[in-house]
Specification:
- By secondary structure, this protein is α/β, with parallel strands linked by helices.
- The protein folds into two domains: 5-85 and 171-273, TIM Barrel; 94-159, DNA polymerase, domain 1 (Orthogonal Bundle), CATH 1.10.150.650.
- Helices cover 44% and strands 16% of the residues.
- It has eleven helices and eight strands.
- It has an eight-stranded mixed sheet.
- β1 (5-10), α1 and β2 (35-38) form a beta-alpha-beta unit.
- α1 (21-30) packs across α2 (45-56), α4 crosses α5 (135-144) and α5 (135-144) packs across α6 (151-159).
- The two termini are 35 Å apart.
- The protein binds adenosine monophosphate, zinc ion and fe (iii) ion (2 copies).
- Residues 9, 11, 66, 244 line the site of one fe (iii) ion.
Amino acid sequence: MPREYIDLHIHSNASDGLLSPLEIVELAMKKHLKAIAITDHDTTDGFVEAVDYANKNGLELVAGVELSCMYMDNDVHLLGYLIDYRNPEFVKIIKKFRQERYERGEAMVTKLNELGINIRMDTVTAIAGKGALGRPHLADALVKEEFVHTYDEAFARYIGYHAPAYVPKMNLNVDHAIDLVHLVNGVAVLAHPGTLRHDEYIADFVDMGLDGIEAYHHLHNRKMVEHYKSIAEKYDLVYTGGSDCHGPRKGKILIGTVKVPYKCLENLKRVVKSR
Ligand code: AMP
Ligand code: ZN
Ligand code: FE
Ligand code: FE
């Protein structure tokens, strides 16, 4: 079978995914993908762990990262692709983000305790392991300790955006995040704009230097994919896509379920070359 599809948005257990980087590579090969990107929150450890194994097996592995930012009081996610992940300044900055994630986790545990939910940080860190700490780890801990029945209930009742134990992350501005991706020669792509639901911000992000938008995503229906492709065309941006797989946390493993053509990766490389 000729391999023509890719998946440019996957989380490993180096952040809040459940699969190890090597398991991700194996699944991608099983699905006959030609290339994938591991785009963990605030870390490239997963990419580093898997890159040799992927290359040995003829799978192209793209260095990526997902950064969380705020814009006009909205959560905005920015993907960085083809990044120079060894850049010492970048390494230092994302390490600080991971530290902030840990402290934010502690703050959320404190809020939960104040709400009478007797959860301990130890339980959360045991679930997170070496992974950059995120709300999914807290959700898993709340399920494990039987404070909620399901993962989704944890977000709805406690740690979702409008829920009582939610604590925002450090306030990284979108323009700073784009600059950070450019500092490491990467391509800056707006993640899942369909969940942001503020298309009017895209023009502002383009002014800040945005290079592309994620058109294909498991939360984008076919109409949205076409919509974001046309927005990319309008602003002369590239479009990309991926599943945003976090492993089997929500049941199905999403790797390869969103059909993204290899051409999207070629376009990312073209952006880097054209500079
Ligand atoms: P964090 O980066 O710690 O804020 O966690 C964000 C992650 O939590 C996202 O990547 C999603 O996987 C997950 N998440 C956020 N909101 C929800 C929600 N309402 N229901 C289920 N999962 C969510
Ligand atoms: Zn995540
Ligand atoms: Fe995201
Ligand atoms: Fe993601």
